[in-house]
Every structure is written in C-alpha cells, then in structure tokens.
From TrEMBL:
<feature type="domain" description="Gnk2-homologous">
    <location>
        <begin position="138"/>
        <end position="246"/>
    </location>
</feature>
<protein>
    <recommendedName>
        <fullName>Cysteine-rich receptor-like protein kinase 10</fullName>
    </recommendedName>
</protein>
<feature type="transmembrane region" description="Helical">
    <location>
        <begin position="290"/>
        <end position="312"/>
    </location>
</feature>
<feature type="domain" description="Protein kinase">
    <location>
        <begin position="356"/>
        <end position="647"/>
    </location>
</feature>
<keyword id="KW-0325">Glycoprotein</keyword>
<dbReference type="InterPro" id="IPR008271">
    <property type="entry name" value="Ser/Thr_kinase_AS"/>
</dbReference>
<dbReference type="GO" id="GO:0042742">
    <property type="term" value="P:defense response to bacterium"/>
</dbReference>
<keyword id="KW-0611">Plant defense</keyword>
<keyword id="KW-0723">Serine/threonine-protein kinase</keyword>
<keyword id="KW-0472">Membrane</keyword>
<dbReference type="InterPro" id="IPR017441">
    <property type="entry name" value="Protein_kinase_ATP_BS"/>
</dbReference>
<dbReference type="Pfam" id="PF00069">
    <property type="entry name" value="Pkinase"/>
</dbReference>
<feature type="domain" description="Gnk2-homologous">
    <location>
        <begin position="26"/>
        <end position="130"/>
    </location>
</feature>
<keyword id="KW-0808">Transferase</keyword>
<feature type="region of interest" description="Disordered">
    <location>
        <begin position="643"/>
        <end position="667"/>
    </location>
</feature>
<keyword id="KW-0547">Nucleotide-binding</keyword>
<keyword id="KW-1015">Disulfide bond</keyword>
Length: 667
C-alpha cells in the first residue's frame, strides 16, 4: 500500500512537472473589474446575493447550461451571465457556479464587476449593461498558456492546431445550437492527439459566435506559437487546445490526418475519447468542486507506465523524486494534489529571475529574499526564496502550502506556485507593482501620493484582508508579523497583505496559543506576544492598530524610547497619539502634513479612535476585525472610549539588542 501511495504521488508529481507545466496563476482565474466598488450591506450587494441564489439553479436547469439575469434598478442594477461548458452535466454546473459566486466575492471583494473562470463554468457580473452586446468584454478576458513547447516539427504542429481550432470554432458557430464543439486531430508519436474546445454563449447568432471566436483565434500566433496547450477565455466565447484530453464527452469535429490546413471532416460518428483514463483518474479524487475540476485535467494524463518510466528516468538523473522522499500519508491527498498542480520547476524560475540576479531582488523579507521574475508568457511574479529551514518535511510543507494557496482574497497576495526541488524552497506569488506601504508612507516625497482617500482605502482594505484571514477563511490564520512592509500596494494602491500563513510553516502553531518562537517585528508586537509569546487574533489586531496610527500620522513606530528613557513622540506614536487624543488635539495636531488638507475631519478622528481601541493593553479590550470593518464602514456605530494604549507610561521591557525593524526572536 505505501508502495501504491508512493506511485500515485510519483505519477502526480511527474504529471504536474512534465505535463501540466506551470500555468502562471492559481486556478481558478478571476479578472476583477474596474467599474467601481460597492460597500458592505449596500443595495448592490443585496442584488448580487439575489443573483448568487438564483443563477446557479437557473443556468444548470436550462438545456444550454446558460443563464443571464438583471437584478435591481440603476444605479444598483447588476447584470450577470453564467455559462457551463458544453460537456458538463447539470450537477457539476450548479456546483461550479455556487463555488464561483463564493470565490469571486472574496477574490474581487466589493468590485462591481468581476469575471471568474473555471474548467466547467464561467461567471461574469457587472453594473454595466453588457448583456445587450455580443462583445467579449476584452477587459474581462484572460488567456492561459501551457508553457511546454513542442520540440519536433513545431511549424506543422502550429498549423495543425490553427486548423483544428478553426474547425472547432466553425462547428460551434454553425452546427451546434448550443454553440459548443469539441475536436480532435492526430499529430505524431510524441503527441498522438491534439484536443480542442470552442464555445460561445448560446444567445449569440452563428455569425456573432464565429466573429467572436475569430477575434480571439487571431491572438493565437502571438500567444500560443509552439506551445502544447493554451486557452483564451472570454465571457462570450472561449477556446482551448491541449495535447491531452480534457474533454468529458465525445468529440464532434475530427480533423483529417494531414497537418496542412485542409478541409476538416466533421466526425459523423463521434469518437469516444479516453473515458477509462479520465474516469479512473477521478476515482481517487476527494469531494470538493475545485478538485473535481482540477483533477480530471491532471488525471486524464496518467498513463501510468509512462510515468513510472519518467520517474526512473528522473531518478537516474539523480534528481530527487519529491513525493517519495517523504511520503506523509497523514497529509490529505487533496492538499497534496493542489500543490502538485502548482509546482513550477526550478529552471523556469531561474530563467524568470535571471538566476536570482541581485538586480531582480525586490527585498529581503522576514522569511527570505524576494525576487522579481517574468514567466515566458509575460506574467510577472515575485519569488520568495525561503532562507530558513522549515522544521517540516516536504509532505507537511505541501499540506501547509496548500492551505495557504486556498486563502484567496482581493486584499491578500496570492500564492501562484511553489518549487520544492532539492534544497530549494521557493514560493511564487503574484507580482504587486507598487512595492510595500512603508516604502511610500515613510518616504519624504512619495508619501504625497497618499492623500486621505487613498490612506482611508488602504486602512479599509487591510482590515478586510485581515478579517478574511481571521474569521472568514476556512483556515483561521493569525498573521503574527503584520507591519507596513508586509502590506503591498497594487497598481491602484489597493493593499494586499503578504507573508500570511508563513508563521505556521515554521511554528506548527494553532490559531491561538503560546509559542517559544516569537515571529514578529518589534514595535508591532502586542505586549502579551512580546513578553509571553502568547498570540491570538487579538495580537494581529494590535499590529493593525499600530499601522492605522502610522498611516494617519505618517510617523514610523518603533515602539522604543530615547536612550535617556524619555518618550520620544516621533518614535512612540502610541503615546504621541494618546497624549494628543486626551488633549483634544486630534486630528489636526497629528495628521501627516504631507497628506494635504483635503481630508474629512470626522473620518480621521474615527480612524484614530479605532486605532487606539486596537492597541489596548488587554487583548479583551481590542475589537475583532469584523467589528473593525463595521466601525470603519459606518459612522453611526458608536465607539467605546479608549483607555491609554499598551506600554503607556511604563518603562519599557525593551530588549537592548533589538533593532527598529529587525525580527525579534525569543527562545
Ligand atoms: C430564474 O428562473 C426563474 C424561473 O424561470 C425566474 O422566475 C427567475 O426570475 C430567474 N432568476 C433570475 C435571477 O433571473
Ligand atoms: C456529473 O459530472 C460529474 C463530474 O464530471 C460526475 O462526477 C457526476 O457523476 C456526473 N453526474 C451525473 C448525474 O452524470
Ligand atoms: C518556448 O517557445 C517560445 C516561443 O517560441 C520561446 O520564447 C520559449 O523560450 C520556449 N520555452 C522553452 C522552455 O523552451
Ligand atoms: C482560421 O480561419 C481564419 C478565418 O476564417 C483564417 O484567416 C486563418 O488563416 C485560419 N487559420 C488556420 C490555421 O487555418
Ligand atoms: C455545418 O454547417 C454548415 C453550414 O450550415 C454545413 O454546410 C455543414 O454541412 C454542417 N456540417 C455538419 C457536420 O453538419
Ligand atoms: C451588515 O449586516 C449584517 C447583518 O445584518 C450586520 O451584522 C453587519 O454589522 C452589517 N455591516 C455593516 C458594515 O453595516
């Protein structure tokens, strides 16, 4: 049995490394809109909830597995479209759409428009009236490239794929009322078959459908030349091709043998495509929609003999066979498989980062250096090279990383890949262009970019991300090292929390407990964590409070006193803010002068008030994050009066050796 277990892992590892090869973002793929945002408990949110309740059922019960809906009145009107792939059944369709609504509201939280793509379904909603148009909404489209190249006869392969995808598109548009087609063509010994899929929403006319597909097929040469697989996903039409079967139903189009762009011969008697392999693959899958979606793709590839051979081949080349090194039956297969599907091989990462060139180094984080990289398909990534040795074996590490990968929220940096080859432990994240908050907030000139509206939205975003970590994710995560350098800003200055979940990799801790391994940054650490190693969501709330006060004042908190023991206002912002608060001089006397004057006095006052509540000495006096989000979102909720903050008026228990921003490790 362990043998069998091991072989399964082997097979999956090999499949992931050699066949599925990195898609540069975690599945599913979301495209968050730029048509504005809505607020918690707004009419817009209520309308969206109506859609979420009705659309999965409406789509899955329609013969075309397609539904559209418009709910509410302008300006809170939401239009939506849901479509399942032509070879999906009603059960899988409905489950996929239910998951889609849940995921997208985390991944594009509070965005008025968003698209999300899964293998079996797509979902799009927007405050704009897109339904009357046949436009594919380019801004909501996405493409995914299978990064593996064909090696023999690439030119013939490209021609074959072009002809196959064209023929599949023709059939979908002109010969299927559901606007769906699946195709197949023969290639060579290395890749005996190429499979394709094309689909439009069934409300398009044949000409509209073919036009839509022609538009995205025209992108093939620039995106997919020489690639063994690729897909272009849009809300109105999509296509995909792969050298392995990803289809669940018989093909409708069979391309004639020749590699030239000859006339396609539609299959009169549809061929049944590898049902045995696909079905066999799914038997060991565990319940869960995402898995049900991811697995068949991988599983369909499992030609066991080939893989066993591959493994021996890899072993002969003295590369460690990861899964065998450390079989941990305890780790859930589900999690192992999630991580296997995210594996990116070291050579790809070396190439992407210029062999970890110093010039590509973005910084040195708590757990190791971070490098910028660009994958061959142009996707930008940030690669974290863990410097510390995790106490965990590969199996356990994968388990932990799978949990981190499942944490998906607009205000969290998403993990898109991992590499655990040889001694390397590399985590691949989405690239967030504006670096970290501290680099702007504490920079004499750049901080002027942060007017009050931006600061307010940053505070709000961090609060939502943290609420998700603490309360809304399946896994309740205490961050344990929240600070401005762990808040990254995207193009639109939306904050994204980074490094979450990493404390667990090194500490094996529960969400609450006492640790003798304090992972944190001096100044941001709650008193109980600093002195007793006791942490909980409330110690994160403390760090959040410190950040709020930093964002408002533009002063960096290092939580220390001057050498002669006097408190220095510039350094100890908790005391600084508290003293002005009690003197009634907030906000004027404390706001960052570089922020300009265009701020709402009451909003700033409220933020400071909330910040002070978060830095109370007693964890029980600090609010939980959902309360913080609520207090930030409404000015009718009345707030308790804060007492003096932690550390106030006491001589500090200051470890003399600590630096202002270094990590402080006790025990
Ligand atoms: C779902 O379908 C039912 C029955 O066809 C219809 O009454 C309802 O309005 C639909 N819901 C939405 C949100 O379109
Ligand atoms: C529907 O499809 C799913 C996944 O493809 C499969 O597991 C399930 O058995 C199918 N259900 C029916 C009723 O065919
Ligand atoms: C694959 O082909 C593309 C385009 O021809 C090329 O840019 C890329 O470097 C190749 N990648 C690998 C891994 O060979
Ligand atoms: C696909 O069809 C388009 C237009 O119908 C044509 O321009 C293109 O050359 C075709 N591509 C291939 C590879 O046959
Ligand atoms: C597909 O539709 C086209 C145009 O209507 C027609 O000429 C062709 O025969 C159809 N093919 C099949 C297989 O039905
Ligand atoms: C939204 O409504 C829920 C349930 O009614 C409530 O618990 C929550 O406090 C409200 N949030 C805001 C920001 O008003």
């Amino acid at each position: 049995m362990p043998q069998a277990h091991c072989y399964l892992h082997l097979a999956l590892t090999a499949a992931a490394i050699l066949l599925v090869v990195p898609l540069a973002a975690a599945y599913p793929w979301q495209v968050c809109g730029t048509t504005g945002s809505f607020t918690a408990n707004s009419t817009y949110q209520a309308n969206l909830a109506v859609l979420a309740a009705a659309l999965p059922t409406n789509a899955s019960s329609s013969p075309d597995l397609f539904a559209t809906a418009v709910v509410g009145a302008v300006p809170d009107q939401v239009s939506a479209l849901a479509l399942c792939r032509g070879d999906t059944n009603a059960t899988a369709c409905s489950a996929c759409l239910v998951t889609a609504f849940m995921d997208v509201q985390n991944m594009c939280a509070y965005d008025r428009s968003a698209a999300i793509y899964y293998d079996p379904c797509i979902l799009y909603y927007s405050n704009l009236h897109f339904l009357s148009s046949d436009d594919n909404v380019p801004a909501a489209s996405t493409d995914r490239i299978n990064l593996r190249n064909v090696t023999s006869e690439p030119a013939r392969f490209n021609r074959l794929v072009g002809a196959l995808v064209n023929a599949t598109a023709d059939y979908a548009a002109y010969n299927s009322t559901r606007r769906y087609a699946a195709g197949e063509a023969s290639f060579d010994q290395e890749y005996p078959k190429v499979y394709s899929w094309a689909q439009c929403t069934p409300d398009l006319t044949p000409a509209q459908c073919r036009g839509c597909l022609a538009g995205i097929i025209a992108r093939m040469p620039s995106l997919f030349t020489d690639r063994v697989g690729g897909r272009f996903l849009g809300i109105r039409c999509s296509y995909r091709y792969e050298v392995n079967s990803f289809l669940h139903s018989p093909v409708t189009v069979q391309l004639a043998e020749s590699g030239s762009a000859g006339a396609p011969a539609p299959a009169m008697e549809p061929t049944t495509v590898t049902p045995a392999v696909t079905g066999g693959g799914r038997n060991h899958s565990v319940p869960g929609t995402v898995l049900a979606i991811v697995l068949p793709t991988i599983a369909a590839l499992l030609v066991i003999n080939l893989l066993v051979w591959l493994c021996f081949w890899r072993t002969r080349r003295s590369q460690p066979c990861l899964a065998c090194q450390n079989p941990t039956p305890a780790a859930g297969t589900e999690n192992i498989e999630i991580i296997e599907s995210m594996i990116i091989d070291i050579s790809t990462l070396r190439a992407a980062t210029g062999d970890f060139a110093e010039s590509n180094k973005l910084g040195e984080g708590g757990f190791g250096a971070v490098y910028k990289g660009t994958l061959p398909d142009g996707d930008e990534i940030a690669v974290k090279r863990l410097s510390r040795c995790s106490a965990q074996g590969v199996g356990e590490l994968k388990n932990e990383l799978a949990l981190v990968a499942k944490l998906q929220h607009k205000n969290l940096v998403s993990l898109v890949g991992v590499c655990l080859e040889r001694q390397e432990r590399l985590l691949v994240y989405e690239f967030v262009p504006n670096r970290s908050l501290d680099q702007i907030l504490f920079d004499g000139e750049r901080r002027e970019q942060l007017d009050w509206a931006k600061r307010w939205s940053i505070i709000h975003g961090i609060a939502r991300g943290l609420q998700y970590l603490h309360e809304d994710s399946q896994l309740r995560v205490v961050h344990r090292d929240l600070k401005t350098s762990n808040i990254l800003l995207d193009m639109n200055m939306n904050p994204k929390i980074s490094d979450f979940g990493l404390a667990r990799l090194f500490g094996r801790d529960q969400t609450q407990g006492v640790t003798n391994h304090v992972v944190g940054t001096y100044g941001y650490m709650a008193p109980e964590y600093l002195t007793r190693g006791s942490y909980s969501v409330k110690s994160d709330v403390f760090s959040f409070g410190v950040m709020v006060l930093e964002i408002v004042t533009g002063k960096k908190h290092n939580g220390r006193h001057d050498d002669d023991g006097r408190r220095s206002p510039a350094q100890d912002i908790l005391s600084f803010v508290w003293e002005h608060w009690t003197a009634g001089a907030v906000p004027e006397a404390i706001v960052d002068p570089r922020m300009g004057t265009g701020f709402s006095r009451s909003d700033v006052l409220r933020c400071v008030h909330i910040g002070l509540l978060c830095v109370q000495e007693d964890p029980a006096d600090r609010p939980v994050m959902s309360s913080v989000v609520m207090m930030l979102g409404s000015d009718t909720v009345s707030l308790r009066n804060p007492s003096s903050p932690a550390f106030y008026g006491r001589n500090r228990i200051s470890p003399t050796s600590s630096t202002s921003s270094g990590e402080y490790t006790a025990g």
